[in-house]
UniProtKB/TrEMBL annotation:
Pfam families: DUF3302 (PF11742). The gene is yiaW. It comes from the Bacteria. The chain crosses the membrane at residues 6-25, 46-66. InterPro entries: UCP028770. This is GTPase. Keywords: Coiled coil, Membrane, Transmembrane, Transmembrane helix.
Length: 126
């Protein structure tokens, strides 16, 4: 008789722990979003509650969504754009340098053709 009540108590305890565990787990993406100052943390919070009804099928996507944003670098795409802009500026600088060097080479070649070379004659004086 005592073991029946003890087993019922353990069963209720396990059910309550699992219930609260599932509720605590669903809120992890929201907590990450709050910590990172995510601009869509309210949507993540609501989607976390919706994930309870989908048996946490969308929960991994919420985790990814929450971890994509960081306040110091945003969504992470701006660094790529900055790097591309920097590379584009470098390429333009190199093109300008090559153009200047080509113009300078053309000037030197033109100056070389304009210079009259002196004619040296071999005169022998006796």
């Amino acid at each position: 008789m005592f073991l029946d009540y003890f087993a019922l108590g353990v069963l209720l305890f396990v059910v309550v722990v699992i219930f609260y565990g599932v509720i605590a787990i669903h809120d992890i993406p929201y907590e990450i979003a709050k910590k990172r100052n995510h601009p869509q943390q309210d949507a993540l919070h609501i989607a976390g509650w919706v994930s309870l009804f989908t048996l946490h099928a969308i929960w991994p996507f919420l985790w990814i969504w929450a971890t994509l944003y960081r306040e110091d670098r945003g969504w992470g795409f701006s660094t790529v754009a900055k790097r591309e802009l920097s590379l584009e500026e470098d390429v333009n600088t190199l093109r300008q340098t090559v153009t200047n060097l080509q113009a300078r080479l053309d000037q030197l070649e033109q100056a070389k053709t304009n210079v009259v070379e002196p004619v040296i004659t071999n005169k022998v004086e006796v």
